[in-house]
Amino acid sequence: MNVRRLIPAAAVSGAVALGMVLLSACSGSSTAADRSDGKLDVVASFYPLQYLTQQIGGDHVSVTDLTKPGVEPHDLELSPKQTVALSGVDAIVYLKGLQPAVDEAIKQSGVKHTADAASMVPLEKHGTEVDGHHHTTGNNDSHSQTEAGADPHVWLDPVRFARIAKGVNKTLAAADPAHKADYQKNTDALVKKLDALNKQYADGLRNRTSDTFITTHAAFGYLAERYGLTEEAISGIDPESEPSISRMRDLHTLAAGHHVSTVFFETIADPDTAKTLAGDLHVKTDVLDPLEGITAKSKGDDYIEVMQSNLVALQNALGAK
Q1: Lesser CB count within 10 Å: N end or C end of the chain?
Q2: CB under 8 Å to 102, separation ≥6 — which residues?
Q3: Whole-model pTM above 0.70?
């Protein structure tokens, strides 16, 4: 997951521009009361945490997403200007271990109010290879926050995501006590939305003909565990890792044995391997979005809408009624 890859020039220029924006907005330490707009200045490391922060903070926060739309969060690198600029914000919301560059910048920033999503829910190991299979099932009960290879994709489980929302609420309230009641009210409303989403998934996937789905990379382990499904990933946690020949052979075998009808690919990661596998298996392809960012290709305008689109895709693939 921590493999370094080249960043497109457009992403680099966007990062530099973002650094300039942060510098102009955040030069020097300050509080929400000191700012002309009175808003708490918060940086979120990537989209799901930006969504949470905006939903909870409402009109009291100004949120900057470090990861530009269309850029893999795993790939994010920060310019020196961005790193320096972080020291001037009021709060940072991130997920330790997902973006090493962000982790290091936060250490250097000295920002008092930080919310680490990885500390709010137990992380597990998913996408590990056992007898040639990248398994994630509803029976996985190993918990670890420190083991190498821990799966960071906790936001794809609405129940865990709701717990993270409560943690972000505490951080915003600590940074801006004057609006604590509003943050709590907004958090309660968001948790209700996530509870409803969890019910939609539980009800929508209850009556199904198959439990197994194939994805590009092992991003849906927590979702699979929550709803008693089995994720079989072409590659592991890292979306850019190459599958072995034996892994592809195993996928052919399990697809036939588990009546797999669909191979899922993503809007950001390269879909070629997934499409090739689907062609070999004579099955359909569809999008299962890991929600690492919202782009024009996303099947929805925000977290809830894309998760609902993912549910429909899973229902179709698993024969849910």
Answers
A1: C
A2: 45, 66, 76, 78, 94
A3: yes
Phi and psi angles of residue 150, each rounded to the nearest 5 degrees, phi first: -60, 140
Strand pairing partners for 230?
Answer: 212
Q: Where are the alpha helices (DSSP H) in 227-284?
A: 245-257, 272-281
3-class state of residue 24 by DSSP: helix
DSSP letter, residue 243: P
Residue 286 CB-density burial (10 A; 0-12 exposed, 13-18 middle, 19+ buried): buried
Residue 11 identity (one-letter amino acid):
A
CB atoms under 10 Å from CB of 169, counted, come to 24
Output the tens digit of pLDDT for each of the chain's 321 residues: 333 333 343 343 444 444 444 544 443 344 444 455 789 999 999 999 999 999 999 999 999 999 998 888 988 999 899 899 999 999 999 999 999 999 999 999 999 999 999 999 999 987 544 344 444 544 433 333 333 478 999 999 999 999 999 999 999 999 999 999 999 999 999 999 999 999 999 999 999 999 999 988 889 999 999 999 999 988 766 656 667 778 888 888 778 777 898 989 987 777 888 888 888 888 899 999 999 999 999 999 999 999 999 999 999 999 998
Which two structure tokens, joined as six digits, stand for 254? 């399990």
Distance (Å, whole) CA 169 – CA 242:
39
What are φ and ψ of residue 153, in 5° steps? -80, 45
Count CB atoms within 10 A of the CB of residue 90: 25
Pairing mode of beta strands 91-94, 40-44: parallel
**Which segments within 192-311 are labelled E, that is strand?**
212-215, 230-233, 262-265, 284-287
Q: Which residue has the tokens 């034996």?
A: 246
State both tokens at 93: 């919301």
